[in-house]
């Protein structure tokens, strides 16, 4: 027995000595560089691209399994020139051998130095980052080896431990070139260092690079990763800094990573200037705003939570220049999606953020359709906007704004609620304070067809029309308090299409106001001065009224009124005609009737009941006013001749002429037809 044990010990010792000798001598005796051609050929076969190991290969076995390679070059496919797709200056990996027996991975270092990745898109649209599908390279049939069953006995993939002294990428570079557009993007000086890595300790991250010459850094902690990885809640606390302008922090955790990942995240962005970010990147700012001074200061913070099925944002706050926005939102069923959002804004001038208009666009906008041109219905004309996403959207939104300026109009205490699904959206009663009055709007939007269809019901009470028109139109032509009820329908999403398809009806009632720019009393008192043929008065003309009532209908963009009237202590006014909103032309007839003295005592008899019709024509920009001289002459003939005592006396004193009295009146009146 002792002899047997002796020989077993001798044999075992010999094997150990031989193993140690092999571990030490194999790297010394075997020239691994002799295998470079075979390695290069296998890589070329797998990728379909040229591959070269330009430097020496080094191999170590004990106590660390190590490999070191240098000057690695993987080329691009044919048609991309001599540009390498990927090159690596040096690669080194060292793992301790003995701990691997017990599934403990102990890494000394994994270092990649000077990696360079070049992504190229040709003018024809081909890219150099597309590789053949598995099994398509060099006619090699796909590997039909069945996948290993991780659940089989003895197939436990769990690591007992994983540690690493250093994992690093140094001096990396990534470039992107689009030959069609000439666009080039570059990430340079890329450095990532992970030290003292372990599955049961938080991972320290130190990342830095330069994007198009601008610095970007990411620092913080992630983990612990857990064993097996992603088996426990993953915490993170990261700080991102970019372009010496943007500072962003992300803090939270992710759980259930192996089943249904759920994230809880607190995001905080310190005030930064989006304009300066693009300026530092030497890129044009993507948004053309009417005011070039906006988007100079943006900051936000919010709590975000959710996963693949739903996500929510709570306690969101954002500052946009001088405005503060508080918001919260929920999103689910992302294939639709279903969105619930609430937002509150303290004070914002939307006009500053709307797109600016180039001079050529302004001149184009001034072009009007030729008078008499048939307005398109917009019913089946293809639209420029794809409304497919809106047809799937389920929306429940509410917006509260304390103070809002849009299209130069000032609104306050706004409450806006919108709900919709299947391409149909309802505007629930919208309310706002508007120039001393109240506004209430209801409506709906239907985008189930190629062109959207809209219905709007508007009610206003006691709105000061003068300041409103001055703000939105920059014109002063009407004063008073407006009360109105309007129902409108239109098709389309462009202003010109909306005008051409605008239909509806309503009533505008103005109380205690004035028509600025027209002096109807002066037109009667001094026709030459009023209509530009005589001496003009220096004071701005105005016609005061106690009530101006305008019932109207809209048909294909044409505003028509048949019984508008104005009341004042001085006169009564009746008006009819139309305003073409498409061509922006006017065609009205105004019939004022004076009911009181114009110049003082004694004038009542000479002026009372006198009708002086006024014709309004021209365009919205340049309206024209002129008296209806024919009608005026007819009135004077009636008053001075036909209805005079002398005319009546002629027929009373001459019985033979009495049968011809009415014919004589018609004949005289017909002289002015």
Report on this model:
The structure is a single chain. The chain is an alpha+beta fold and 673 residues long. Among the domains are: 151 residues, no CATH class; 42 residues, no CATH class. 18% of the residues lie in helices and 46% in strands. The protein has 13 helices and 31 strands. It has a 31-stranded mixed sheet that branches. A hairpin with a 2-residue loop joins strand 14 and strand 15. The longest helix is centred in the N-terminal third of the chain and has 28 residues. It is elongated and about 145 Å long. About 10% of the residues have low confidence.
If you compute it from the alpha carbons, what radius of gyration comes out, rounded to the nearest whole angstrom? 42 Å
Classify the beta-strand content into a percent band: over 45%
Calculate the terminal CA-CA distance, rounded to whole Å: 147 Å
Helix content: 10-25%
Structural class: alpha+beta
Instruction: Give the overall shape, derived from the CA principal axes.
Output: elongated
Structure summary, number of beta strands: 31
Given as residue ranges, the uncertain stretches (5+ residues, pLDDT < 50) are 4-23, 150-155, 358-366, 368-382, 528-535, 598-609
Q: Compute the number of helices.
A: 13
Q: What's the arrangement of secondary structure elements?
A:
Elements: H1 2-29, H2 36-47, E1 51-53, E2 58-60, E3 64-75, E4 84-96, E5 104-113, E6 116-121, E7 161-178, E8 183-198, E9 203-211, E10 214-222, E11 234-242, E12 246-255, E13 262-272, H3 274-280, E14 298-307, E15 310-320, E16 323-332, E17 338-345, E18 348-349, H4 359-365, H5 388-392, E19 394-406, E20 409-421, E21 424-434, E22 437-446, E23 453-464, H6 465-473, E24 478-491, H7 495-500, E25 503-516, H8 520-525, H9 527-530, E26 542-555, E27 558-567, E28 571-580, E29 585-594, H10 604-607, E30 614-618, E31 623-627, H11 629-642, H12 645-653, H13 661-670
């Amino acid at each position: 027995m002792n002899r047997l044990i002796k020989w077993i010990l001798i044999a075992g010792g010999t094997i150990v000595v031989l193993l140690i000798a092999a571990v030490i001598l194999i790297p010394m005796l075997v020239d691994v560089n002799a295998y470079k051609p075979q390695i290069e050929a296998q890589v070329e076969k797998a990728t379909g691209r040229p591959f070269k190991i330009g430097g020496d290969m080094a191999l170590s076995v004990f106590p660390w399994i190590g490999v070191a390679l240098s000057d690695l070059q993987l080329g691009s496919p044919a048609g991309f020139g001599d540009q390498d797709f990927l090159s690596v200056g040096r690669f080194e990996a060292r793992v301790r051998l003995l701990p691997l027996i017990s599934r403990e991975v102990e890494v000394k270092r994994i270092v990649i130095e000077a990696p360079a990745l070049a992504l190229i898109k040709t003018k024809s649209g081909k890219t150099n980052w597309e590789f053949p599908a598995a099994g398509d390279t060099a006619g090699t049939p796909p590997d039909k080896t069945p996948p290993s069953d991780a659940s089989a006995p003895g197939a436990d993939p769990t690591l007992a431990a994983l540690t690493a002294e250093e994992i690093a990428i140094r001096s990396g570079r990534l470039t992107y070139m689009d030959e069609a557009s000439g666009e080039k993007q570059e990430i340079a000086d890329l450095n990532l260092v992970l030290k003292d890595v372990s599955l049961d300790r938080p991972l320290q991250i130190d990342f830095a690079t330069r994007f198009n010459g601008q610095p970007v850094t990411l620092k913080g902690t992630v983990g612990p990763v857990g064993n097996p990885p992603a088996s426990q809640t993953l915490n993170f606390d990261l700080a991102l800094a970019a372009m010496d302008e943007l500072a962003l922090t992300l803090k939270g955790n992710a759980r259930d990573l192996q089943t249904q990942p759920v994230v809880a995240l607190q995001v905080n962005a310190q005030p930064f200037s989006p304009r300066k970010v693009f300026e530092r990147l030497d890129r044009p700012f993507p948004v053309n705003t009417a005011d070039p001074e906006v988007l100079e200061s943006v900051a936000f913070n919010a709590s975000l939570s959710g996963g693949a099925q739903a996500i929510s944002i709570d306690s969101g706050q954002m500052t946009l220049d001088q405005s503060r926005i508080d918001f919260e939102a929920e999103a689910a069923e992302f294939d639709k999606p279903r969105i619930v959002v609430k937002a509150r804004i303290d004070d914002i001038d939307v006009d500053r953020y709307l797109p600016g208009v180039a001079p050529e666009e302004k001149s184009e906008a001034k072009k009007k359709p030729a008078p008499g041109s048939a307005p398109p219905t917009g019913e089946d004309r293809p639209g420029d906007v794809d409304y497919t996403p809106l047809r799937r959207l389920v929306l429940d939104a509410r917006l509260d704004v304390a103070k809002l300026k849009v299209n130069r109009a000032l609104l306050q205490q706004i409450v806006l609620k919108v709900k919709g699904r299947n391409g149909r959206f309802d505007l629930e009663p919208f309310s706002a304070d508007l120039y001393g009055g109240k506004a209430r709007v209801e409506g709906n939007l239907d985008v189930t067809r190629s062109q959207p269809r809209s219905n709007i019901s508007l009610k206003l009470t006691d709105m000061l029309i003068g300041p409103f028109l001055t703000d939105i139109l920059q014109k002063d032509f009407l004063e008073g308090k407006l009360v109105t009820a309007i129902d409108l329908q239109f098709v389309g999403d462009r202003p010109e299409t909306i005008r051409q398809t605008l239909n509806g009806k309503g009533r505008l009632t103005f109380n205690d106001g004035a028509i600025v720019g027209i002096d109807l009393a002066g037109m009667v008192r001094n026709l030459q001065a009023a209509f530009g043929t005589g001496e003009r008065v220096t004071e701005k003309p105005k016609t005061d009224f106690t009530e101006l009532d305008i019932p109207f209908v809209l048909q294909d963009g044409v505003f028509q009124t048949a019984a508008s009237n104005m009341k004042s202590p001085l006169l009564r006014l009746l008006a009819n005609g139309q305003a073409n909103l498409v061509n922006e032309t006017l065609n009205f007839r105004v019939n004022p009737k004076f009911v009181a003295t114009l110049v003082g005592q004694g004038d009542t008899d000479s002026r009372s009941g006198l009708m002086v019709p006024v014709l309004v024509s021209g365009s919205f920009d340049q309206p024209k006013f002129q008296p209806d001289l024919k009608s005026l002459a007819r009135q004077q003939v009636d008053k001075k001749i036909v209805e005079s005592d002398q005319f009546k006396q002629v027929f009373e004193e001459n019985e033979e002429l009495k049968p011809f009295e009415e014919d004589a009146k018609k004949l005289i009146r017909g002289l002015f037809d």
